[in-house]
Task: structure prediction
Amino acid sequence: MKNILQLILISILLISSSNIKSQDLFFSQFENAPLNLNPGLTGNFDGKARFFFNYRNQWPSILKDYSPKTGSLSIDSKFVIGNTNNIGVGFNTVVDRSGSLNYQTNQYNFLSSIIHNFG
Result:
């Protein structure tokens, strides 16, 4: 029964993460945007939950109203399973606006990871 439950859980996590993208955004303090840097870091931290908000306005003195603006919001948590396993779940959204036409792209990502501690 335990193996069937684990198989179902792993199947759900794999199906939910079938749309995989790499990082296309650049934040100056990338260590403060771990889920944008690597979605595999979901739930990989000491604590119960974490929250990040990042905002970037690039070259506002030169481009005035047309400067690229990027905002990111990330929330993730981990759930302990047994002594050595964790399941991380999270949400990440990115809004990127730039140019004279204010072209905007929005990304909404649901993240998951399985963490096994060896040792």
Remarks:
- The longest strand covers residues 85-98.
